[in-house]
TrEMBL record:
Gene it is expressed from: dat
UniProt function note: Acts on leucine, isoleucine and valine.
Top-tier EC class: transferase
Pfam families: Aminotran_4
Organism of origin: Jannaschia aquimarina
The protein's name: Probable branched-chain-amino-acid aminotransferase
Enzyme Commission number(s) of this protein: 2.6.1.42
Keywords assigned: Amino-acid biosynthesis, Aminotransferase, Branched-chain amino acid biosynthesis, Pyridoxal phosphate, Transferase
Family (UniProt): Belongs to the class-IV pyridoxal-phosphate-dependent aminotransferase family.
Amino acid sequence: MRTVYVNGDYLPESEGRVSIFDRGFLFADGVYEVTTVLDGKLVDFDGHAARLERSLRELDMPMPMTRDALLEVHHRLVAENDIDEGLVYLQVTRGAADRDFAYPAEETEQTVVLFTQAKPGLAKAPEKGLSVDLQPDLRWGRRDIKTVQLLYPSMAKMAAKRAGHDDAWMHEPGGTITEGTSNNAYIVKGNTIVTRQLGNEILHGITRAAVLRLAREAQMKVEERAFTVEEAQSADEAFVTSASTFVMPVTSIGGKAVGDGQPGRIAGRLREIYLDEARAKAL
Ligand code: PDD
């Protein structure tokens, strides 16, 4: 049985409890982070801690503990649960209060929950690329805040799976792609990598920031701009990035093969250099 962290206590998972009045439960009034574990160490912990602080600030919530205290909780859970490859999930909500759309007038005690998931083989080279479906992006307008309000991405992923795909890329009226259901989306045309610019329309991926920096350091050309479904379907390569998938090739978009239908060379190269750095810098 796993050990989980709930509001200061390390408990067997069956003993973790949160109030039915928790605003995370009633209003999705909470944010989360997913940090990857490789070789028993945390990948880009500081990136995730910084984004957590930003998400909380956007919702008028403070950080529930210092960066060092948070790191210690992560390390203790990784050690107690003997995680070599996997992830640490963290969720912070505004806490319990009588149900009211207004934030509670009196400051509530935040709910802080962390747990691990073991994922042996996480960093193995993918045997094939992903087939992504196309689904309209019907999420709310503040996708830059990493809230636990994930029902639409979940619906879009299920629609994609029912249609025989692995995942979905979401698009807006006008036909531009925003991102995947739980990852950032990229296409490659010639030697140029194209991915949506940062804004309220997408999550500011921690993996995205690292991959774009590494791509530029490797003298690859990067364009941060919106791209259309048609551009994506006629691209030479495509891929996604996220904490748990690193850089993952996409070989089919909306039923059309991308390039020659095989995982792309640039995606493969970026995955290698990303994983090398992630392992070298992990805490
Ligand atoms: N998802 N876009 C969305 C909508 C996401 O949910 C995620 C992450 C990303 C990639 O962000 P990062 O590189 O920081 O993981 C982009 C996480 C992994 C999840 O919900 O499980």
